[in-house]
């Protein structure tokens, strides 16, 4: 659906261009999640939104979305493996929110 499209390649390139956000210390809010917890939560919220906004999706299409999202989370874990257990900074949180929104846009476009 989206993993084998140019848009996903562009998104991974965007991630690699912003790796510096994950290499430097920054402001951490009390109770902030780890990087991987944040990724999983934000991506999951966006998958729920996709399914809610596209109620006509078949069970097969929903399953495909979940499989591809698992692949995306795996890719993020691979790229960010050295920092996934670190507490997310404010800047990282903002980037992950934006990245998850871009992932959602890829699926929205593929569904349309």
Itemize the secondary structure elements and their pairings.
Blueprint: H1 6-17, H2 35-53, H3 59-79, H4 90-111
Helix pairs in contact: 1-4, 2-3, 2-4
Q: Round the mean pLDDT to the nearest integer and report it.
A: 94
**Beta-strand level of the residues, as a percent range?**
under 5%
Structural class: mainly alpha
**Low-pLDDT segments:** none
User: Which sheet architecture does the biggest sheet show?
Assistant: none
Count helical runs. Answer: 4
Q: Give the overall shape.
A: globular
Terminus-to-terminus distance: 11 Å
* Record field, number of beta strands: 0
> What's the Cα radius of gyration?
14 Å
Helix-strand topology string: HHHH
How many domains comprise the coordinates?
Answer: 1
Helix content: 55-70%
Protein name: Topoisomerase II
Task: Describe this structure as you would to a colleague.
The chain has 112 residues and is mainly alpha-helical. Helix content is 66%, strand content 0%. Helix 1 packs antiparallel against helix 4, helix 2 packs antiparallel against helix 3 (59-79) and helix 2 (35-53) packs parallel to helix 4 (90-111). The model has no long low-confidence stretch (mean pLDDT 94). Pfam families: DUF3802. This is Topoisomerase II.
